[in-house]
């Protein structure tokens, strides 16, 4: 991968994805020619360094809202991944770890479908959006729907009888469907909130906070299970869904970087 993949399209002779439009380039050239040479030399040079990109991302409240949403989504994802085999053995009559793992396999298959459908739904929502609507917000609204369904899948799994093995597999597949959809869309939304040069920084912040959430599905959830049983486990998972929804509500109308730039140019 390192030998074959290039950093940007321009490295292979393609146009830059963030190249200015020809009209904008011509206008900038005329403006520069009209200014005295001294003023042009005194202009600060725009820096595209890593720290500048990181600072620009850290100033956006919407990125932090998505990051902490990611935290709670990953609490659920890692909690289900780490603990579901034990839950099925303890509460749902799985004979051994192999049998339980076979049931849990539905999560990944459901996740494959869920992430694909999430992208299709959010693209459709954006195409049908009214003028002035926050396009990132449209994706976030899809994530909110998935998060509600995630809570529903948790409740369904808890309610499935121990002898209904097929229903257990379906409930876990539904859970995977509704976990992996938000996981994909939150990262995409974070990329659309920032400038092309800051996408890497935004993904770094989102990923860092997300894996803090995954870490909290270890010892903290173990303590919950030991102290409050499996009912406590499901309460913690549902609580994570609830907090994620509250955070998502704050960015349900968020505009993309391109929208904000166009609005500023028109002002």
Summarize the structure.
This protein has 267 residues and is mostly helical. The protein is built from 11 helices and no strands. Helix 6 runs antiparallel to helix 7 and helix 7 packs across helix 10.
User: Which value, in Å, is the CA radius of gyration?
Assistant: 23 Å
Q: Would you count the extended β strands for me?
A: 0
In sequence order, what are the helices and strands, one letter per element?
HHHHHHHHHHH
Count of helix runs: 11
Average of per-residue pLDDT values: 86
How far is the N terminus from the C terminus?
44 Å
**Which structural class fits the helix and strand makeup?**
mainly alpha
Low-confidence stretches: 38-47
State the helical fraction. Answer: over 70%
- Beta strand %: under 5%
Largest sheet: none
Rough outline: elongated
Characteristics:
267 residues; mainly alpha; 11 helices
Q: What features would you describe in this structure?
A:
Helices cover 75% and strands 0% of the residues. The protein is mainly α.
Topology (elements, then pairings):
Layout: H1 22-34, H2 37-42, H3 50-58, H4 61-91, H5 97-104, H6 106-127, H7 135-159, H8 165-193, H9 199-215, H10 219-249, H11 257-266
Helix pairs in contact: 3-9, 4-5, 4-8, 4-9, 4-10, 6-7, 6-8, 7-8, 7-10, 8-9
């Amino acid at each position: 991968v390192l030998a074959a993949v290039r950093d940007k399209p321009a490295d292979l002779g393609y146009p830059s994805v963030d190249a200015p439009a020809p009209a904008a380039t011509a206008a900038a050239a005329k403006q520069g020619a009209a200014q005295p040479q001294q003023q042009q030399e005194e202009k600060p040079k725009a820096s595209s360094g890593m720290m500048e990109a990181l600072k620009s991302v850290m100033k956006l409240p919407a990125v932090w809202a998505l990051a902490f949403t990611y935290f709670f989504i990953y609490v659920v994802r890692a909690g289900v991944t780490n603990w579901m085999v034990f839950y099925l053995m303890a509460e749902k009559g799985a004979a051994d770890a192999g049998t339980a793992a076979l049931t849990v396999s539905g999560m990944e298959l459901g996740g494959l479908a869920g992430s694909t459908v999430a992208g299709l739904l959010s693209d459709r929502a954006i195409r049908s959006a009214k003028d002035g609507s926050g396009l990132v917000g449209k994706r976030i609204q899809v994530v909110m729907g998935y998060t509600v369904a995630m809570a529903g899948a948790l409740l369904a799994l808890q309610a499935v009888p121990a002898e209904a093995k097929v229903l257990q597999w379906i409930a876990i597949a539904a859970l995977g469907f509704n976990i992996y959809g938000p996981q994909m869309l939150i990262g995409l939304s974070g990329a659309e909130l920032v400038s092309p040069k800051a996408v890497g920084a935004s993904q770094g912040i989102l990923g860092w906070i997300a894996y803090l959430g995954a870490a909290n599905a270890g010892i903290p959830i173990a303590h919950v299970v030991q102290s409050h049983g499996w009912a406590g486990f499901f309460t913690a998972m549902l609580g994570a869904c609830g907090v994620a929804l509250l955070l998502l509500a704050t960015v349900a109308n968020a505009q993309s970087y391109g929208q904000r730039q166009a609005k500023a140019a028109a002002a």
